[in-house]
Structures are given as structure tokens and as C-alpha cells.
């Protein structure tokens, strides 16, 4: 598995809109490019960090080279209107060992 971290700041008051655009865009990227999805986190200083999971580096590189455009133009508009800055990959990581246990409901 291949992980890519992204970081953004949302415009003040548009955090909910940012999250909605991010969710919709992530679902569209998953459908179109075959990612495993992403997790959105928030840092103590208010930045948003996305941890995207991909089957491998080549799959991510192909999507990234294509601009990761997707079929939900409204999601892109919602997201971009709420985004203050960021979006370039911050870290690219090859997963070596995974001991994360998903909680059960």
C-alpha cells in the first residue's frame, strides 16, 4: 500500500463546506482512479490533513500525472471555494508494516 499526505487550510467559517467538498471529491477519485479512499484529520493549529491510501505508487502516480480530475465538478467548486491554501503532496509513504486495528461497532 502507498500513502500520500496532503495538508490544507480552510477559509474561516467554511470548514464544513471544505469537509463536504473533500468527502465528495475523495469518493469521486476513489471511483475513477482506484484509490482506497482517504482519512481527513485536523491538526491542533486548525490545518486539515488528508491521508490517502493507494494500492501502490504507480497507481497514485498515474492519477497524479492526470491531474486527479474527476466527474464531480460541483464537489471541486465547493472544495476550492472553501480552501485557503495547500493541496500539494506533503509526504509520500510506502507502507511496510500495518498494525492498525479498526474499531468494531
Tell me what the structure shows.
By secondary structure, this protein is an alpha+beta fold. It has one domain: Alpha-Beta Plaits (2-Layer Sandwich). It has helices spanning 15-33, 57-65, 73-82; strands at 2-10, 37-42, 48-54, 83-94. It has a four-stranded antiparallel beta sheet. Strand 2 (37-42) and strand 3 form a beta hairpin. The longest helix has 19 residues, at 15-33. The chain is globular. The chain starts with a strand and ends in an 11-residue tail after the last strand. The mean pLDDT is 94.
What would the CATH topology be? Answer: Alpha-Beta Plaits
Q: Termini separation (Å)? A: 25 Å
Query: Which value, in Å, is the CA radius of gyration?
Result: 14 Å
Range of helix content: 25-40%
- Provide the structure class: alpha+beta
* Quantity of strands, as a count: 4
Number of helices: 3
Overall 3D form: globular
Kindly report the oligomeric state of this protein. single chain
Biggest sheet overview: 4 strands, antiparallel
Low-confidence stretches: none
What is the CATH domain class?
Alpha Beta
Could you state the order of secondary-structure elements as H and E? EHEEHHE
Nearest-integer average pLDDT: 94
Strand order of the largest sheet: 2-3-1-4
Amino acid at each position: 500500500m502507498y500513502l500520500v499526505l496532503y495538508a490544507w487550510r480552510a477559509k474561516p467559517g467554511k470548514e464544513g463546506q471544505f469537509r463536504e467538498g473533500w468527502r465528495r471529491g475523495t469518493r469521486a477519485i476513489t471511483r475513477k482512479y482506484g484509490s482506497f479512499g482517504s482519512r481527513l484529520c485536523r491538526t491542533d493549529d486548525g490545518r486539515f490533513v488528508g491521508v490517502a491510501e493507494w494500492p501502490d505508487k504507480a497507481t497514485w502516480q498515474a492519477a497524479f500525472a492526470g491531474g486527479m480530475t474527476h466527474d464531480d465538478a460541483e464537489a471541486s467548486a465547493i472544495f476550492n471555494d472553501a480552501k485557503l491554501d495547500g493541496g500539494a503532496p506533503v509526504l509520500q509513504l510506502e507502507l511496510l508494516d500495518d498494525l492498525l486495528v479498526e474499531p468494531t461497532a
